[in-house]
Amino acid sequence: MSVITIFSGNFCHEDSIVKEVVKATGYNLIDEKEIIKKTSALSKITETKIMEAFIAKTSIFNKFTHEKERSIAYLRLAIANCLEQEKLVMSGFPVHLIPSDINHVLRTCLIADVKHRIINAEAEGQTEKIAAKLIKEHEKNSAAWVKNIFGVEDPWSISIYDMVIPVDKTNLKDTVKLILEKSKSGAVEYTESSKNAVRDFHLAALVETALADDGHNIGVSAKNGAVKLTINNNVLMLKKLEEDITSIAKKVSGVISVETQTGKDFYQADIYRKYDFQIPSKLLLVDDEREFVQTLSERLLLRDMTSAVAYDGESALNIVDEDEPEVMILDLKMPGIDGIEVLRKVKASKPEIEVIILTGHGSEADRKICMELGAFAYLHKPVDIDLLSQTLKQANQKIKENLRQLK
């Protein structure tokens, strides 16, 4: 039996069409919300964080943490688990992760012109202005998502679907009829080849998540137990990395052999770094002394601690709102919003962020105020880099303990 996937522009009658397809086929529905829920259960990543994988804007910290890639790896595993069943209707962004060689999947896209979608949105109670904004945002996210998965610019391209249905020109009844007819065709039959492709997909997802859990961002494919690992970033010690990831992959049940290769982006400028779970994954340095903060960032990098940088309090607060760092190293004396005010605002809005004060001008009164406001530590410039590194690790440990208590 086939699996029917449906990806849709917003305000394209998706809910009604999915409901009628499920009713007509008797298939089980696994929608985007359910896939995210299953992914969260597998990965222990929050559902909110997983949903961020579908958003075009990527956190400034993602190049250090690979959070988006880890979420996608676990989304693949959740979908692979679902595909062990037959007679499914699946919908939403995650359906694009199903490999093209799984032939019993009917890939359907619903779309309409913007004018039609705005009319539908207004019927649901949205104003024209809000509807246009929501459609534009969804189009932006959809385009970024399919480009990431397929390398295709157009999220509605026929090249990534079996059928693209213009719902502004096709009524609900005929749309459902088209989907049902296509789902019964020989092109989407559940064959032995398709069954093997699901098994390969599942094994690749298991290996990919095992690598992600160890801090690696590596491309994975599998064929009959033979696993291929693709390194897409420049590596200082390629042989050592190959040994490490091969060892991890071989421990996954079902893996018969492992081969490593470098991918098309191997020679890019960025250096591959394994994510270290013992140090803060989202570190923000805030200091108006540009030379100092750049030097500090480089010295921390030598200790495998990567960081983002803000040169004033206002920029730091914007990053806190948009990207939520885990730890901040914060100067006190800055033009505009000073460090104490930044600390006060951060602890009022995001108390879980640990703030380490690092100043060359602070007084004992400043230290007392900062600690009362909730600073994790108060250090002076010039700082011993080993002391700072140890303080960062202690802050990271506190964050982990707080998360365990919340669970």
Report on this model:
The chain is an alpha/beta fold and 407 residues long. It folds into 3 domains: 3-188, Rossmann fold (3-Layer(aba) Sandwich), CATH 3.40.50.300; 214-262, no CATH class; 283-406, Rossmann fold (3-Layer(aba) Sandwich). It has helices at 14-25, 32-43, 47-51, 62-65, 67-82, 114-123, 128-150, 172-183, 192-213, 238-250, 290-301, 313-323, 339-349, 364-373, 385-406; strands spanning 3-8, 28-30, 88-91, 105-111, 163-166, 219-223, 226-231, 257-262, 283-286, 307-310, 327-330, 354-359, 377-380. The strands form 3 sheets. The chain has a 5-stranded parallel beta sheet. Strands 10-9-11-12-13 form a 5-stranded parallel beta sheet, with helices on both faces. Strand 7 (226-231), helix 10 (238-250) and strand 8 form a beta-alpha-beta unit. Helix 5 packs antiparallel against helix 9 and helix 12 packs parallel to helix 13 (339-349). The chain starts with a strand and ends with a helix.
Quickly describe the structure.
This protein is an alpha/beta fold and 407 residues long. The chain has helices at 14-25, 32-43, 47-51, 62-65, 67-82, 114-123, 128-150, 172-183, 192-213, 238-250, 290-301, 313-323, 339-349, 364-373, 385-406, and strands spanning 3-8, 28-30, 88-91, 105-111, 163-166, 219-223, 226-231, 257-262, 283-286, 307-310, 327-330, 354-359, 377-380.
